[in-house]
Amino acid sequence: MISGIVLLILAGICWVAIGIAVSRCAATGLNYNIVQMISSAGAALISVPVLFLSGGRPELPGKILLAVFLLHFGAGVANYFNYVLTARAMRLGHNGIVWGMMQSGLLAPFLMGVLFFNVPLPLGRVLGIAAILCGILLLGATRDPGAGRRSSSRARWLIPAFGAFLLAGVTQCCNSLPSYWKIAADSGSVFRTFSCMTGNAAGFLICLEFDPALRRSPRSAEWKIGLLLLLLFCLSNYFFFYNGLNLVAEAGAGSIGYPIPIGVCIIGFTVYCAVHRKERFPLAGWIGLIAVTLGIIGISLR
Description:
This protein is mainly alpha-helical. Helix content is 78%, strand content 0%.
């Protein structure tokens, strides 16, 4: 259990870099959708030889393996469009508030565990759910301090941020399900990474048909960010996240698999926004982020 929590914390630290990459792309005019294509397609391609050369090829019945692939493929597609909306919301609103709101989608896999997999729901977790919901409402009601008096400014970032929140929940549910099935968890972290990154790359191909801006060659800065994220994706997924998710699920605490790394991720990115980007957090924004963080702690308690 402890080793699983440590692995999930390390995954959360890696995820902070994703938020920083989205924020930098939004601030500098780089296309994060192209960055996603570089990192996801690269991770999927690297996973193929690693899968076979490492002897980590899953020995599972075809139907089970297909189900695991489809779940993680779906997670990858949903995650691609999640970050499409996150990047748009960050261009229009407060980066730290958008990130905290999107990551609150962790409520979905937690509630899935409670409703369908007999995860206990003591009072502390009930209070945690209430705190996260209150935090989301406060984040949604927060006005960007840099938006001036534009009445439409909040709606412009809030709508894509709420869409990202919903897609984050879908992504996390699809990613979490195989860890509840012992036979599916044996598919291994490399296969699950391959499936998810393939879905992410498929999301880019879907957008390619509708967005001419994606048909240009990547800029040098986009290559650099994409290759850095490729390294972090492989490090996080091969060694930290999926292995940690399996360990806590085996201990009967699968519902905390996402709250731990996302709590680390929200705190780390908030510090980045406050210190590096010099973003001013209004009081409602601070209270909302604190409520979400305390809620994450609450639902992580056994």
